[in-house]
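Give me structure tokens for this 771-residue protein.
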Amino acid sequence: MSFESDPSIFIASLREHPTYKSQIVHVQRIQPRRPLHGELAEPLNPPLQSALESASMFPLYSHQAQAINAARAGRNVFIVTPSASGKTLGYNVPVLERMLSGKRSRALYLFPTKALAQDQLRGLGELIDLLTPSTIASKDCTTFDGDTAREERRDIKKSARVVLSNPDMLHVGILPNHESWSGFLRHLSYVVVDEAHIYRGVFGSNVANVLRRLRRLCELYGSSPQFICCSATIANPREHIENLVGLDFDVVDEDGSPYGGKDFVFWNPPLVDREGGEARRSANTESSSLLAELAKAGLRTIDFAKSRKLTELIYIYSRDRLREESPRLAERIMPYRAGYIAEERRFIERQLFDGGLLGIVSTNAMELGVDIGDLDATVLTGYPGSISSAWQQAGRSGRRGGRSLSFLIAMDDPLDQYFMRHPEAFFGRSFESALINQSNSHILRQHLLCAAWERPLDERDADVFGPKYAEVRDEIESEGLLRNRQRKWYLSPQISYPAEMVNIRSASADRYTVVDVSDNHRDIETVDASVAFFQLHQGAIYLHQGESYLVGELDIPSRTAYAKPVDADYYTQVREIEDLSIQHVIRKKEVGGVGVCLGGVTVTNHVISYRKRRQFSEEVIGEEPLDLPQTIFPTIAFWFGLPHGTGRRLAEQGLDLAGGLHAVEHAAIGLLPLFALCDRNDIGGVSTPAHADTGKPQIFIYDAYPGGVGIAERGYEFIDDLWKATLQLVKECPCESGCPACVQSPKCGNYNEPLDKRAAVVILEGLVGGR
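Here you go.
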């Protein structure tokens, strides 16, 4: 028996390793599953059936047959099944059938990443090459994105029958130039939206408006394409896809594909003594050690990190470890993330697919369905923020039906540690709901300007853009940005190409460029403006492709950070001052005698300084002031106060009210992703013993995006469950006075001061008492 055929052998070897300190807290053995096949209502086109049989894609699984039957009947279809279940055939078969029967038929495929589009083009081309006879050739299918050469774009618009792109290019490249795409749009039969669960929060709210703009232009040219969409498993598939596209859908969510089984290991780093108390060893250190062991065992692996910075750090640690222990393997691992140029990304993808690499460290850029060949293992460095994403990442190994191995390495984070103590809450929990807010006024106004550039707005657009359309349109008109002529609204001449001013992946349209001053002022990366003050402030250590850069100057007017390579053994962390004011109450209720409100608020953030922390030891080695402007934005929050008598009980026990409120805020934010498909970074919070607007102790938790995207509403809805889970988390944590696993937050702008864990328990016991 080998590691590859039986992952439990590798797990046993880890338990015998000299550095093992009981990190394995749970192993879930997931059993294999046999396939369930389905029948089509009508036989396939003979060349297509022959091609599927040649590619070993026939007979069809039950969910593939169900999706194809619904698409053939003219209905919009949403396929919601796990990774590697063969969802792609659910749209390729209807599209190719239409192409074979109608020479003018066109299809648009949308993927969230360029890598996924390139991968799907390869798979589609291989299937088309098997069609004999055929009226379509693989050359009729092409990608159209930011990497497409300008000299190729005219031919694509004129002759391509299947265009594979992404929502960004649709938004900024195709829709504003629809006249040059008129032939394609006039004959557009199908729109495919893959990985639809990715379109949530701000990104999803923007994409929902982009798809509505596409539909109104198709109407202009006389087409009404069907939509076939795919997703990983989520709790609210029908609600999500109908909010995203704005049409009715059939949902196909019963998976008929086979499954090879998996050993899913929960790995909790050991406790160590650090300055200021006990904490767990860095998950990044554990991850790099584990990746090195997997590489030495010959197990092909993806290690998922939660940020660009951590991707680079884990890669560096793993590479250096292998250089010491197995030098020949050090060159067979690489980092992979957004921000790399196209040639770098394609090279890494090919190397992994062809077996040249044993492993990569990646952000969630590799979470999606890019075919990177047979993988034996996945490592999740930290819970990725949702059950859906965790299973999506874990599903990247074992894609060919063999048994596979996955590790979830816990961070010192409330949700990670909650699952380490309650693995049944992970394996027995239903998937979260994907949340978007297509009618968010801040997002909608940007897309109405884009839509007016593409085609004058009129009263019928209320059916496309929803109930807030007229209100937002009239607001834009009052600002002089739209001109009303006989109930048609035209874009003001002062605005040119508004799509260029809208970044659909962010609440901010602005991006900062990182320039390497040591290399002829070469642009090395771009960073979203919403995080620029946190990552690119003067003195920041910024990581790019495993190298540290010291930011010498942040030029805010030109949106440029000037940096140079540096050999640094520390990283930087900002301090911020945060304030919040209540604008209006949307809803309110009483839960156990405690008032809970949902409403509009204004948040003010001010980054005032940064600390230098030593890598590995986390020792603070210095703090420097910063002079940066405030950022102010409106959003949606829910908030609550204290149960009657709680303040008195805290005073009697000599506990700190401010520290208790702050601790409850942190712990509740850490667990809110249990109830909504979001990341901790999507949420902010403020707590105070006497808020200026209420005069009372309050805890606020808000959407960290202008206008909100639905997260606060979900917290308000499940407030009682959130309180109970938070109390359980804080009481069960073995630390004495609070740690990152319960009440400390890695993103706290006050460096986790003040915090009082005992006071938090008293407050939470009061909130859940008697229920």
